[in-house]
Design a protein that fits this description.
This protein is mainly α. The protein is 79% helix and 0% strand. Helix 7 crosses helix 9 and helix 9 runs antiparallel to helix 11. The chain is globular. The termini are far apart.
Length: 281
């Protein structure tokens, strides 16, 4: 005899009553959060004195100013041998900074992964602090600090990009390591393997594809940052950008900006192709 004929209530019949008990409080909380977000946005616009009604007119005036001052771009300047040499230096700076950052990030990420770290009391907090410290300060600030300490040149830019990569790749590396399946790790530990053997034979095979993709994305991000690091004295294309902006050579500025956009597009296409080859898709 079923539950309905015996006077009982089936579990299917009880579910709507249980759900309706919590439906309205959850809805009130959700709509309350939406209302708070809207009110906070309105308050922020009022507090910051942002004239919403002027956005349309402001957008038109900005485009008009761009076309009147920066068009047509001086493309011959962007093809000058002296400028192209700095473009090549920017690519080198991004490559070296990313390579050093990735290599340093591997042992740091190993120590910063709670499930496979050699020491949870010592290595783990130190590695986490290094990653957080590198991420907390923008690469432009790092470049300014290194220029003050070391002087103008490519070295401050390379060091700034290295720290940027450590903060960026180190965090993602450690997160990938913490999400691995622990079966292989436990098997190697059960056979008496040490922490290094666990990392090489259990962790690396599971994360190598993801780490390769992260490294490529780190290079892509570092290259975009490298294009303007020279503005703060760290060498590369940014030095030309600063020089032309300060001398009000607007047509040359637009040519440099177009070259930066073109290089970033090429870098994006190349990195996407490499990621596709690595993933095998």
């Amino acid at each position: 005899m079923d539950s309905q004929s015996s006077g009982g209530v089936s579990p299917q019949a009880r579910k709507p009553a249980t759900w309706s008990r919590f439906k309205y409080p959850q809805s009130l909380i959700r709509y309350g959060i939406y209302l708070f977000v809207v009110i906070f946005i309105g308050y922020s616009l009022h507090y910051l004195n942002i004239p919403i009604e002027r956005f349309y007119l402001l957008l038109g005036s900005v485009w008009g100013s761009i076309f009147s001052r920066y068009y047509p771009p001086d493309l011959a300047y962007a093809l000058d041998k002296g400028y192209l040499r700095y473009v090549f230096e920017t690519v080198q700076m991004a490559y070296v900074g990313t390579l050093l950052g990735v290599v340093i990030s591997i042992p740091i990420a190993w120590c910063a992964s709670f499930n496979v770290t050699p020491s949870r009391r010592v290595a783990y907090p130190i590695a986490r602090f290094i990653i957080m410290a590198s991420r907390s300060i923008h690469e432009m600030i790092w470049a300014i600090l290194f220029v003050i300490i070391l002087g103008y040149g490519m070295l401050p830019g390379v060091l700034a990009l290295t720290l940027f990569t450590i903060g960026f790749a180190g965090k993602l590396f450690s997160e990938e390591a913490e999400s691995i399946k622990m079966g292989q790790v436990e098997a190697i530990r059960a056979t008496g393997g040490n922490s290094l053997q666990v990392m090489v034979y259990a962790v690396m095979p599971q994360v190598k594809v993801a780490w390769a993709g992260i490294s490529i994305y780190a290079w892509d991000s570092a290259f975009r940052a490298a294009t303007v690091l020279g503005y703060f004295g760290a060498g590369g294309m940014g030095w030309y950008l600063k020089q032309t902006i300060e001398t009000l050579e607007n047509l040359k500025v637009s040519a440099i900006l177009l070259s930066i956009i073109s290089l970033v597009i090429v870098s994006e296409i190349a990195s996407a192709w490499v990621r596709k080859k690595i993933s095998g898709k």
